[in-house]
Amino acid sequence: MKRHSVLLFAVSALVVLVLALPAVAQGTPGAAADTLVRLVPDDAGLVVHAEGLADRLEAFKKTPLFSRLKAFPPLRAWRDAQQAELASASAQISQALGATPEELWEHVFGQELVLAVWPPDEEIAAGEKTGPPAPISGPGLLLVRADSAQRLTRLIDAVSRLQAGDERTEWREATHRGVKYRELTVRADGNEESLFLCSVDRVGILTNDDRLMRRVVEAVAPPKAELIDRPATLDGLPAYRACLADLPASATIHVFVSARRWDESLRRDVASASPAERGEKEGFFRFWQSVEYGGLGLEIGDRVLLQGVVRMAPERLPPPLPQVLASFSGETAIVERIPASCLAAVAGRCDLAGLFHAARTMAPPEERRGGAWDLVDRFLKLVGPDFAAYLTADEPPASQATPVEPQPTAKRSLPLRWMVGIGVRRREPGENLPPGKDVLETLVPLSLQMTSLLRDGTPLARLRTIAHGDHRLTLVENWWLLPPGAVAAYVVTTDYLWAGASEATIRAALELRAEDSLAGANRFRGLVDKTLGEPTHLLYADLAAMRRLLAEHKEAFVAAVAEARGIPPDRAERGLAQLASILELADTVVASMHVDERRVSVALGVSAQP
Fold it and tell me: pTM, whole model, 2 decimals?
C-alpha cells in the first residue's frame, strides 16, 4: 500500500541539510518574484523559507554573539566530545556524495531553501495503520536553489547511485511538461514509500507526492501559451504577504502557517478524540477557526531576534476571548517610569476589572450577582491597567534622606533593590467612583495592618509618613513580610501606586527623567523591531550588569544562596559560577509582546557588545 509519510520525507530531505549546516546565518528575506516561494502551491499548510544563509555565515561568525556561543562551556564540551563522530560522518558524506558537508551547505542548501508541508487529505488519513489520523502526516516539499546547475545534477546522480544497489528500492523516470523527474520507491515491512526528485536549471525539487511534483513542475517549467495558466502559488496569497508584513524585514528565516488549510485535519482529530480529550480539543478548534495565519521570523546577526505573530478575526473569537484580549491591549506609558539602569524589569498592561468582568460572564447566572462581586468590581476599577516591577543595584547610603533606627537582628542584605508599581485610575467624568488616589491612600495602610492582625503574635507594622515635594511617602517597618531590619516604602500619586525596598528607591522613581528611562534606551529599543509596534508587555534583563554585580558582591550572593537553599557555601559558589557562565552568553535580553484585537505578536531579542 502506498502511503504518504512525512517522517520519510522529512528524514530524507533534511538529513544532509542538518549534517551540512555548520551554523545559521543572516540572509535577505522577502517574497520577490524570483524566490522559490513562487514555486510553492498556495494550498500549503506550513512553509519555511530561508534565503542567502551561506553568504551571511561568515559575517555572523564575526559577531560577539557567535564568539560567546562558541566559548560557552557546555557547548564547547559537547563539540569536543563529538568531534571524532562528526568528522567520521563528514567523511562518509564526502565519499558518498562527492562533496563535503561544508560544500553542500555553501553551494546547495545555503543559497535558498523552502520546506513546505501539507495537511493529510481524507484518503491519507484513512490509510493510517492504527489509532486516530495524525493531524500532520501529509505531503512534503523541499526546494533548494544551488549556485550551479551542474553541481545540483551531480548531487542528484550521487543520491541515485547510492540507492541503486539496494534490492528494496526501485528507480524509474517520468516526464511532465517536458521536464524529467525520478521516482524512488522503497519497500519495507509491507509498506511502500515513494520519493520524487527533479532538477530544473539550478532548482532542486524533492517531494513524497507525485501530484505535488507535477504542480511544482508546472510552476517552474517555461510557460507556453497553449497550456493552462500558471498555477496559483504562495507568493500571490494575500495571507502570506500580510504575514511577511507582520514580521521583521531583516528576518533571515520566515515560517508561515495557513490556518484554514488545517481546518479539516483538526476537525477529524476532534471527531476521533476520546471523550476525555474531546472537550479540550473542541475548545482549541473553536479558537483555531478565528485564526487567519501564524508566522515566525528569525534574524541572526549582530542581534538575534525571534518574532512570532498570530493574526485573528475578532468577530470569530469565542467568548470571552475578545474581552480577555482587550484587557491586555492598549498603549502603556509605564515603561517611561522604569530607569534605564535597572538590572531587570517586567511591565505591561492588565485590565483587572476587564478580566474580572470576563470571568463574571462565564459564571452561572445565579452566581453573578451579589455584594462580593460588586465590591471586587469597584475595587479593581481603581487600579491598573499598567503594571511594572524592576530590580536595581544598591543605591549609595547618601541617598537615604530619612534616618532609620537600626535593628539589632538586621542582616546584611543583597545589593539589590526592588520596585513594583501599578496604575491608579483617575475618575472619569460622570463616574460614580472616588478618585483612585484618595481610596488607595486610605486602603493601603489599612491592608498592611489587617494582614498583621490576622497573624497571631505579629505586631502591627510601623508606618511613618514624610513629605517629598507634592507627594507623601510612607515608610513601612516591622511588617511581617519584610526581612528583619528592612524598611520598605510606598507612595500613591495621581497615576501610580509605587512600592519599593527603600525610601531612596521611591525618591529615585519619582525624580526619574524621561531621558533616563528604559523607554528611550538604545539597548532596549535595538531589540524591539518596529513591525511589533509599541510593546504592550515586556521583559528586560541587563545580563552585563548582572555579571558585574555577581563579581563585585560574590560573598554576599554565596551566603544568601547557601542560606536560602540550605546547602554548603562551596556548592552555592559552584551554582553561581554556572549562572555567571550563562550570563556570559549575551549582554541584553528583551522579550516583548504586542496585543490588540486582531493580532498577538511576541518577540525575543538578544544582543552582545564587542
Answer: 0.86
Cα–Cα distance, 144 to 37 (Å, whole number): 11
Q: Which H helix or E strand runs over 277?
A: helix 275-288
Nine-digit cell string for 202: 539550478
Cβ atoms within 10 A of the Cβ of 181, count? 22
Q: What 3-state DSSP class applies to 156?
A: helix
Question: Which H helix or E strand runs over 279?
Answer: helix 275-288
Contact 503, 471 (CB under 8 A): no
* CB 179, CB 190: distance < 8 Å: no
What's the pLDDT tens digit per position in 35-66? 899 999 999 999 999 998 887 777 888 999 99
406 pLDDT tier (thresholds 50, 70, 90): very low
Grid cell of 213 as nine digits = 511534483
Q: Which residues fall within 8 angstroms of residue 37, CB to CB, at 6 or more apart? A: 31, 47, 49, 114, 233, 234, 235, 240
| E strand or H helix at 220 | helix 210-220
- If residue 303 lies in a helix (H) or strand (E), which one and from where to where? strand 303-312
Residues contacting 409, CB < 8 A, separation 6+:
484, 485
* H or E element, residue 360: helix 352-362
3-state secondary structure at position 260:
helix
Neighbouring C-alpha atoms within 13 Å toward the C-beta of 440: 27
Residue 598 burial (C-beta neighbours within 10 Å; 0-12, 13-18, 19+): middle
Going by C-alpha positions, the residue among 58, 106, 539, 30 that lies closest to residue 301 is: 58
24 pLDDT more than 80: no
